[in-house]
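REQUEST ID: PR-0412
SUBMITTED BY: lab tech R.K.
PRIORITY: routine
TASK: structure prediction, single protein chain
INPUT:
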Amino acid sequence: MMLSFVFKSPSTQVLRAARSRSLFTVWGTMKKLIALSLMHLALITGCAAPQPLTERNSQLTQGNVQMNLVAGETTKAEVLEVFGAPNVTTRDGSGREVWTYQRQGQVSQSSSRSGFWTVLLAGGGSSASGFESSSRMITLIIKFDDNDVVTDFRSRASNF
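STATUS: complete
OUTPUT:
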C-alpha cells in the first residue's frame, strides 16, 4: 500500500483570503477615519460659528454695563459688539443719537425642607416645599456724540 500526500500550493486560496481580509481591514479603517474626520470638522465648524444676536443681547446686566461702558471712550461699534442691536434708536433735543436697550428675564426657584426626629419608639416628621418666581427688567439708555462716542449712559434694574 502506498500513501501519497498531495500538497496544494496555498497561493490561490490563502492569498485570496488574506487579500479579502486586508481589503476589509483597510476599508474598515478608512470608514473610521472618514467618520472621525467628519466629526472633527463638525466640531471645529460649530466652535468657530459667530455668536448669535440673541446670546449677545442677553449680556445686558448691571455688571456688563459698568465694565464695558466708559463715557468719552466707548464707541458705537463697541456697544454693538457687547450688547447687540438696541431696542429703540432716537434723537434727543440737540439731535444726538440715543440708544435704548430693555431686557426682561424671569427667575424661578423651588425649595423643599424636611426634618425628622425620634424619641425612643415615638417619632415625627415634617416637610415643606415652595416655589418662587420673580421677574427682572433692566433698561439701559446710551447717548452718543457726533463722533459716535458714548457721552452719557444710565441703567436701571427693576425686580417684580
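NOTES: The longest strand covers residues 97-119.
REVIEWED BY: pending
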